Amino acid sequence: MTGDATLRRGLAAWTTRRWLRVGVASALVALALLGLAGAWVLGRTASISKDLVDVKSQGLSSAFHLESAMLNQETGIRGYGLTGNPDFLEPYRQGIAEQKAETARLAGLLRGDSTGVADLRHVRDAVEGWQARIARPIVASSAGAPSPLATERAAEGKAAFDRVRSALSGQQERLRTEQTRAREDLASTLQLRNWVFGTIALAILVLAGLIFEGLRRGVTRPLAQLEADVRAVASGDFTRPITQTGPADLRRLGGEIDVMRQRLVQELETSEQSRRLVDAQTANLQRSNAELEQFAYVASHDLQEPLRKVSSFTQLLQRRYAGQLDDKADQYIGFAVDGANRMQVLINDLLDFSRVGRVHHAHQSVDLGSVMDETLSAMSVSIEETGAKITCDKLPSLVADATQMGMLWQNLIGNAIKFRHPGQQPHIHVTAVQEGSLWHFAVTDNGIGIAPEYAEKVFVIFQRLHTKDAYNGSGIGLAMCKKIVEFHGGTIAVDPQYTDGTRITFTLADAPTTTSDAATTSGAVHPDHAEPTP
Question: What is the pTM of this model?
Answer without folding.
Answer: 0.43
